[in-house]
Amino acid sequence: MEGTRGTSCTTTARDDARAVAWWVLLGAGSGAIAGALVGGVGGRLAMLLLRLTSPDLVVGMTSDDGFEIGVVSADTLQLVLAMALLGGINGIVYATLRSAIPRRLRLVLWTVFAAALGGARIVHEDGVDFVVLEPAALAVVLFVVLPGAAAALVVVLVERGSRVEPWADRRLSAGLCAAALAGSFALVFAAAVAIAALAIRRPGGARRRDARRRLGARVGIDPNRPLTEGSGAARAN
Asked: What is the pTM of this model?
């Protein structure tokens, strides 16, 4: 009897672990897909639309998220991965809380909640996105709708995945794993970009420091002192 009871407990624990892992994977993968498509790709399309409706002077400006307006670059991939990461977190939270939300209200409540929370965090009165870009009302609408749309897609994907036997569909499981890993890869990618940026900036900074040392030696000023109009260099000229 003890052996049977021990085997039963082990089986139950294994089944519980598989079920929890499935729900976490379903939430993370679904959220990463929604975040990448709606937040990443949709966000860039929204900025493109605002670029077309705004004066030409906005081209080349840096948006509040740190991206150059009107320019498609490798930063777009960084945005997509970052949105996949945020979407993955959204999906895991929804998969955890969905059982506490009435079935008929899940889509509406989660969409409204995400739109309100995302809009409150994104929309602000200062910066570039909602001051320089025109029309401002369109910018506000777009960046309130996008978080809500991403959340709605999360609900649809998670609810559809909940009807599938956990781990039974290998292609679905592999797809969710790939999406979840893509979202997690955003952290690694961000670290690599930061390291590369530092590597690029440091040689230039070293050259500037060397130039200042040579200039200081010529005019007899402290090379560590900032060169301003009131400095010794300006007075020497």
From this structure: 0.71
